[in-house]
Amino acid sequence: xxxxxxxxxxxxxxxxxxxxxxxxxxxxxxxxxxxxxxxxxxxxxxxxxxxxxxxxxxxxxxxxxxxxxxxxxxxxxxxxxxxxxxxxxxxxxxxxxxxxxxxxxxxxxxxxxxxxxxxxxxxxxxxxxxxxxxxxxxxxxxxxxxxxxxxxxxxxxxxxxxxxxxxxxxxxxxxxxxxxxxxxxxxxxxxxxxxxxxxxxxxxxxxxxxxxxxxxxxxxxxxxxxxxxxxxxxxxxxxxxxxxxxxxxxxxxxxxxxxxxxxxxxxxxxxxxxxxxxxxxxxxxxxxxxxxxxxxxxxxxxxxxxxxxxxxxxxxxxxxxxxxxxxxxxx
Length: 331
Prior knowledge:
Blueprint: H1 2-34, H2 40-57, H3 63-75, H4 85-106, E1 108-112, E2 127-131, E3 136-138, E4 148-151, E5 160-164, E6 172-179, E7 184-188, E8 193-197, E9 205-206, E10 209-211, E11 219-220, E12 230-231, E13 235-242, E14 245-252, E15 264-267, E16 272-276, E17 300-301, E18 305-314, E19 316-317, E20 320-321
Antiparallel strand pairs: 1-2, 2-18, 3-4, 5-6, 5-18, 6-16, 7-8, 7-15, 8-9, 10-13, 11-12, 13-14, 16-17, 19-20
């Protein structure tokens, strides 16, 4: 065993010396090729060291000792001509930064849940990743109006999407898609029931819905309003199945007053979707969107959709990190 460990240690030493020596030789060659006014004896010694390094790579010299000779030249007579560590790694750092910006602009973008409109699927404070590539390519940093290079797919019914709110194009929202172009949507709050006429054809289809026996309680806050954490109202949990998605929604035990209880129909126009929050009595979604003059504007243009919410990667809550939610898929 000691023999094996010695051989392994020697292998690592040779591998490290070879990698470091290549960088040192490259730097030394660059200095003597581009810098003027160098001492002739130093140039001669540097060229000799580079020749020795080539011999060492061919196995004709000791690799570790030759690497040390290169290092001695660069830390001794040629030290003042060396590139700073920052400039040395600047190209790599620049490429890494550009790659990160490209990924954020076109592929993935982080998003933080600021309010409780998507409870219980998403909790306030959840950090999620949004797949921006799944429906098409948006032109980065365009929001008023949003623009796309191209799109190659529509959201599916039940997808949770992040989009630029369509009234003022001023901020990102997150909701669940329940209606696609041509669909006619009906929602009956008194029955906790969503209906769809797919593509506007045939009879109403009641989305499969069942009341669960799970206890319903949650902590709420609206970060945009500067709220403190507080318990949400007493509620009840239902399970819905829409397309390939099975998910939970909640309703207040005591129905809120006003338009929440009205039964309405919406016909989704081309290139738009209809969205709802999973916290059905506390979500500003397609049911209630209106322009500044009060006229309804319930539909989200496809050009406003940034991408699909895929998974949770961090979940700080009122009592600390919610570890059981980390890396959970958004359904």
